[in-house]
Amino acid sequence: ELIDIPAPPPVPISSLEKLSLTFRCSYLNLHLQIWVSGGMWPSGLIQSILDWLHIDLPWWGCIAIGVLAVHVAMFRLVIKAQQNAAKMTNNMPQLQVLQQKVIEARQSGNALEASRMTYEIQAFMKEKELDPFKNLKVSLIHVPVFMSFFFALKGMANSPVESMQYGGLSYTICDPYYILPMLTSVTVWATMELGADSAKLSSQGFPIHPFRQVLHHDEFLGAILCYWLTINVISLVQVGFLRIPKVRSHFNIDPIVVVPPVKGARPKK
């Protein structure tokens, strides 16, 4: 009888070839996940850029570099908003006087005087180059950028992208140690305080407010909180940088002048 000859064993593959094959499969799988979740939408383009950065960097570094690049690209808009905000603040007392005169003219039924004062307000704003909507325009530009990053990271974390689950903190789940929610809450509070130009900290608001915010942030995924935390830190640095007198002078940002109440302006209630 003839004995069945077994099939020849497979050719051994070196460990380097196995690693290369595993990397290619993982990389193609990641690209497929990104294409399905974002496609050619802005969020999909952001995912592709973050994926490219992740070749040499951890995910937190990719997110930080992406946020920093966007802030640098939009820095000129921030400067224009600061210039306009300083002009509005310094000219607000005179503007309030003119607005009060318009109100008084309308209340007295003097339409001609009200029209004249309205024209005077327009001339005053044109002379001082005041635009109350300029800062709103800058904020509206930031909204789609924030939402694009938000949906990009949310899509990658929900897929989930495998590399986001390993190598330290898992960006695909909520932080079980509450470190990211706490840091995000503190930086949100600090950004609000500095943005409002508050002269001093409230003795009650300082210890309580960040802990309140943790209750709202503890359900966000790690990738979202990492992005949010990076935005807040960069915003704090930016606000502090633009408060330096020499920096404000370099960018032609008027110093904020403390103007005493002008006679004729309606007192605040």
Automatic annotation (TrEMBL):
Record-linked CDD domains: 5TM_Oxa1-like
Signal sequence, renumbered to the chain: none
GO cellular component: mitochondrial inner membrane
GO BP terms: protein insertion into mitochondrial inner membrane from matrix
UniProt-annotated location(s): Membrane; Mitochondrion inner membrane
Keywords noted in UniProt: Membrane, Mitochondrion, Mitochondrion inner membrane, Transit peptide, Transmembrane, Transmembrane helix
Membrane insertase YidC/Oxa/ALB C-terminal domain: residues covered: 59-239
Keyword Transmembrane: yes
Membrane topology of this protein: Multi-pass membrane protein
Molecular-function GO term, any one: membrane insertase activity
Family: Belongs to the OXA1/ALB3/YidC family.
Protein name per Swiss-Prot or TrEMBL: Membrane insertase YidC/Oxa/ALB C-terminal domain-containing protein
Organism name: Daphnia galeata
Phylogenetic placement of the source organism: Eukaryota, Metazoa, Ecdysozoa, Arthropoda, Crustacea
